[in-house]
Amino acid sequence: MSDFxxxxxxxxxxxxxxxxxxxxxxxxxxxxxxxQRLVTEQKYNIVxxxxxxxxxxxxxxxxxxxxxxxxxxxxxxIKLSDMSSKVFxxxxxxxxxxxxxxxxxxxxxxxxxxxxxx
Length: 118
Known about the structure:
single chain; 118 residues; Transcription Regulator spoIIAA; 5 strands; 30% strand
């Protein structure tokens, strides 16, 4: 099993969460606490870069579902980017492309927020 790591890069308008390794029942609470912190700090424009995410379980998917409503009711969104085909297939199987904006690149996800850069 791979180690799980979370990195966060923030600008004044967008927070990027970098995921690496296995996101499962054991590691999902780490991601949950990151989302909780962002929501508490009223940072609702979130991109999750999955470039280095090698596995996601239903527990990991549940974290995304737990926060999307709060984020969207505050005029924000959670956009997902840079997924391997293996990880995308899990999201796709459960219908996530209908619920979430999934882009090929982080730059594309950031651009979809339509925020003027300063």
